Amino acid sequence: MEDTVAWHFDPKGVFSVKSAYHVIEEKEVQSKAKQREAELEQAVRLAKNSLPWRKNIQRRGMQIDTRCSVCWRLEDGGHCFVKCKFVKHCWLAMDLGGVRTKPLSALSAVQMVAMVLDLHGVENLTLLWAWWEARNKANCGEQKRSTAEVIHKAALLVQDANFLKKEGTCHPNRVSPRWKPPPTNKLKINCDGAYIDSMKTGGWGFVVRDHVGHGVLAGAGRLEGVADALSVECHACLAAPEKIAEKPL
């Protein structure tokens, strides 16, 4: 088999162990960033009630057993992430039992996600992801993961989130990508959040633009008593769909 280049050279055209290390480090950061994006996307899909749990699949016309593949009770969003007796054990094992009971009074999926993220945003988001992954494994007929395995996965994801936060402070001059327009006759939502750790406050904002960059809808707001930056970002992601639902474009 012919040899291939494993790592790129540095900007000066020189290959070294140091340059290879930087390439590996950058790949690790990119991988963790993609995981965080996936966690945020899952929270948005949960708020939109569009995750493929069994009741949703049945509503789309497929004849399917609507029982939870873990505990064999009827599965919807509230059951999967809050009411299932096995996910209860995970919330309690992470000392988040009080957080789990908050969304039981939610009147909508959006409200449920907002309640879950109000406290311990990073821990809650990673637990939701770790549990959804475990649920999918059981749904495919694989062995059910134990509570210890689920919370271990969540703990690793929390470490990754903290690592990304540290990386962000270490590279203040990193250039952000330019805005790219959506396809013709499509709209694009951009959102962001800001967080002040010392005051536990934050702010969010979003803008909806068409393919030529014209603003169609925008919004902004302030948040009090939020747990971390990730919670603010999740609120920013949820704000745009909420406003669009109130005022269809």
TrEMBL record:
Highest taxon, organism lineage: Eukaryota
InterPro entries given in the database record: RNase_H-like_dom_plant, RNase_H-like_EbsB-rel, RNaseH_sf, RVT-Znf
MF (Gene Ontology): nucleic acid binding
Positions of the Reverse transcriptase zinc-binding domain: 15-91
Pfam family, one: zf-RVT
Name of the featured protein: Reverse transcriptase zinc-binding domain-containing protein
Organism listed in the record: Paspalum notatum var. saurae
